[in-house]
Specification:
Distance between the termini: 87 Å
Order of helices and strands: HEEEEEEEH
Radius of gyration: 28 Å
Low-confidence stretches: none
Oligomer: single chain
Helix content: 10-25%
Strand content: 15-25%
Strand order of the largest sheet: 4-3-6-7
Structural class: alpha+beta
Largest sheet: 4 strands, antiparallel
């Protein structure tokens, strides 16, 4: 202690690096990482895929693949029935020999004799990358698995 320094008081505030970091981190912790936007009156809330995706979805190389359990393929008629997509998402079907998919309605007829392993189904979301593709063969096999399990009941 030097002649010019005051004597230490028992209530002196000591700032440690840990305490300083905690004080600076507190406002950040209280604000959080943000929240999804609340739907407006003209926009009903929906629990479908894509309506409230977390931010990391935008950073993926592709959107998640369509839910094959919700898509049906009727082998007798050759009709592929797609489920309703949320927001502005659109169904795309890529037939064999096509370089890119084309927009598809909710029901799409697949021509007889088309190899189902080469017919791809996916969806696109404006401003984002397309989803991963699944083949109609995969969709058919998923449906066959469900039918065989139903027979066990």
């Amino acid at each position: 202690m030097t002649a010019f320094s005051p004597p230490p008081s028992p209530r002196a505030v000591r700032t440690s690096p840990a305490r300083l970091a905690a004080v600076l981190a507190l406002p950040l912790a209280l604000t959080g990482c943000g929240a999804p936007t609340v739907p407006t009156a003209g926009q009903p809330p929906s629990s479908g895929v894509g309506t409230q995706d977390p931010p990391w979805v935008a950073l993926r190389s592709q959107l998640p693949a369509p839910d094959a359990d919700r898509i049906t393929y009727d082998e007798q008629t050759g009709v592929l029935k797609l489920y309703d997509l949320p927001g502005n998402d659109r169904w795309m079907i890529q037939m064999p020999g096509e370089e890119a998919g084309r927009p598809s309605p909710a029901q799409q007829r697949i021509p007889a004799g088309t190899p189902l392993a080469h017919v791809c189904v996916y969806y696109v979301r404006p401003g984002m990358k397309p989803s991963a593709q699944i083949s109609v063969k995969q969709i058919r096999e998923t449906g066959l698995a469900h039918n065989s399990l139903a027979a066990l009941r």
